[in-house]
Design brief:
The complex is a heterodimer of chains A (326) and B (251). In chain A, 41% of the residues lie in helices and 25% in strands. Chain A has 326 residues and is of the alpha/beta class. Chain A has two domains: 219 residues, Rossmann fold (3-Layer(aba) Sandwich); 66 residues, Lrp/AsnC effector binding domain/regulation of amino acid metabolism (RAM) domain (Alpha-Beta Plaits, 2-Layer Sandwich). In chain A, helix 6 links the parallel strand 7 and strand 8. Chain B is globular, with a radius of gyration of 18 Å. Chain B is mostly helical and 251 residues long. Helices cover 77% and strands 0% of the residues of chain B. The chains are: A alpha/beta (326), B mainly alpha (251).
């Protein structure tokens, strides 16, 4: 359904997307997971024909994104990361505008609009101006709008960014339902690992413009091998020196202010870890045990967490932006 | 082709009709000019070589000003669409940028024409333009349409090159106001010194003002046919420029 070949985008001072290739099957939910600035949105913009690739290409629904733009555009629906509704128009008018742009005949347009507005539970608000909508309602309307022309491929760029947990769950349910009922191929970008984990059949982990891992969430997490233990301490070096000699720890990695260990049956070994460090006079400030998440996969691959401080600030600013306008 | 142009046009009109404060706000300045300059200078200013009073003289200028400012604003509005993300929605649709550009231009020109027409009607009540004939009104309307089309396209061309609204003040002060000031909207260009007169003659709005003035007051310092040719040419040129720049717009 989607074949990406050596896709590259260079801006003046840096390479945003660096020679990526992957294939997505029909009906799949495919995730691009990575921190802000990793190149996810740039990739989506190129696939959606809004940005010209520096080199490489991709085919969507059999059409080349550089030579058959109009066919590609007819095949895709897209929900952008940032709001893209006309706030001075009503929900219905936003939908109607979209339907007309895609040259849908009047009767089909009307039927589809009311069907989709019911799907996203906005039928009662269809004649309200969008500027009176909350962030969650806007997102739902954008989803409905992008589906209006019955695209074969559906792009969602950070679909739940800045939404509260309840609304997020709601949006996830829509996405899952869409994929099942309409058998639509979905490609979504996110930097929330739980989102990628829950929704995606396969995930490409992207960092600094490159795909550094691509598999099902389960297999990616299996690669970690065992449980993940995170220890916080002021004496990371001492702790590392002590624990790296231990045979039953399969993987150990020091970070800034914390250490991650991977081991099997972590519950049974915790006591021993604590004993080992206290006999050597090392204080442990906190211990946590959890099953591997995609965050651990990312940490293992890059040595960094997905949600760095900077990303948090940008998120918060976006959220405030949304709140201000809602 | 026309269905898409109509769709974009329709959105512009809907937004216009909904923003009552914008309609009223953008009529404020021309009304102020009309009343203060018109009544204020009516008794002291005589137009050389004409029996026309000053009020009758500046009404066409104020109409041209209204149409020009409204249309430049409408064109520049696509920066908002860019910033608020709506432009992406149109650019990702299977429509050509020419269609989007033409729809925007027609939409902006329509709203600008309506604004100018409101001033025209108001000026009838304060005692000017009584002498104009039906054909005179039609001639004035034609020039209003041309000013609307060309300056909306001009605004789109500017907006396509601008990242955000920061450069807007610059454009207003160094492009839009000089075009207005030099156009002979407020004074007869005949009485200017030679060097200044040649400046007014390269200002496209001069021909728009003169065209409207010919229609409403039967008075023109430029051959009306010449005005028509220049304005039509300017309209085509700005639409071409706007189309080229809008085609390369990046988001």
């Amino acid at each position: 359904m989607i074949e990406v070949e050596n896709l590259t985008k260079k801006f003046e001072d840096h390479v945003a997307v660096d020679n990526i290739s992957f294939t997505i099957e029909r009906g799949e939910i495919f995730g691009l997971l990575g921190p802000n600035g990793a190149g996810k949105t740039t990739t989506i913009s190129m696939l959606a024909t809004l940005l010209k690739p520096t080199s490489g290409t991709a085919r969507i629904n059999g059409f080349d994104i550089t030579t058959h733009k109009d066919e590609v555009r007819k095949s895709i629906g897209i929900v952008f990361q940032d709001p893209s509704l006309d706030e001075e128009l009503t929900a219905y008018e936003n939908m109607d505008f979209h339907g007309r742009l895609y040259r849908m005949p009047g009767n089909v347009r009307e039927r589809m609009i009311s069907e989709l507005l019911s799907l996203v539970e906005l039928a009662e608000r269809k004649n309200s101006l969008v500027k009176t909508f909350s962030g969650g309602m806007r997102r739902r309307l954008e989803i409905a709008r992008a589906l209006l022309h019955e695209p074969e491929v559906f792009f969602l760029d950070e679909p739940t960014l800045g939404l509260d947990p309840q609304t997020r769950n709601h949006i996830w349910e829509y996405i899952e339902r869409l994929n099942k009922e309409k058998e639509i191929t979905i490609i979504l970008t996110t930097h929330y690992m739980e989102e990628a984990d829950r929704l995606c059949d396969r995930v490409a982990i992207i960092d600094r413009g490159r795909i550094i891992a691509l598999d099902t969430p389960e297999r990616l997490k299996d690669e970690i091998g065992g449980d993940v233990v995170t220890l916080e301490s002021r004496d990371i070096e001492g702790l590392y020196a002590q624990l790296s000699k231990t045979a039953w720890i399969e993987h150990i990695e020091p970070h800034d202010g914390f250490i991650t260990l991977t081991l099997h049956n972590a519950e049974r070994h915790i006591a021993e870890i604590v004993r080992l460090s206290s006999t050597n006079g090392i204080d442990i400030d906190s211990i946590s045990i959890h099953k591997p998440t995609l965050e651990d996969v990312f940490l293992r691959l890059t040595g960094r967490r997905i949600r760095e401080e900077e990303a948090d600030i940008r998120d918060r600013m976006r959220m405030m932006h949304r709140l201000h306008r809602g | 082709m026309m269905d898409i142009v109509y769709t974009i046009w329709l959105r512009n009109i809907k937004r216009y009709l909904r923003s009552k404060s914008r309609i009223a706000g953008s009529l404020g300045m021309p009304l102020f000019f009309l009343l203060v300059l018109g009544f204020g200078l009516n008794s002291v200013v005589r137009i050389p070589g004409s029996k026309q009073d000053y009020m009758g003289f500046i009404v066409p200028g104020i109409i041209a000003m209204t149409v020009m400012f409204t249309s430049v604003f409408s064109g520049i509005q696509i920066i908002w669409d860019k910033q608020f993300g709506f432009l992406k929605e149109t650019l990702v649709a299977p429509v050509s940028r020419l269609e989007i550009m033409l729809g925007q231009t027609l939409g902006g020109a329509t709203t600008a024409f309506i604004q100018g027409f409101i001033i025209l009607v108001i000026s009838l009540f304060i005692g000017s333009g009584h002498h104009a004939t039906i054909s005179g009104f039609l001639i004035a309307s034609l020039f209003m349409v041309l000013i609307g089309l060309s300056f909306t396209a001009f605004g789109i061309a500017i907006a396509s090159k601008m990242e955000d609204m920061h450069g807007f003040q610059l454009i207003m002060n160094f492009v839009i106001f000089p075009i207005f000031g030099l156009s002979g909207a407020l004074f007869p260009i005949d009485s200017l010194p030679g060097w200044l007169q040649s400046l007014t003659l390269v200002d496209p709005l001069t021909y728009g003002v003169e065209g409207i003035r010919y229609g409403l007051a039967g008075l023109s310092m430029v051959n009306p046919f010449m005005s028509l040719v220049v304005m039509a040419g300017f309209t085509l040129a700005t639409i071409a420029l706007g189309t080229v720049l809008f085609r390369n717009i990046s988001i």
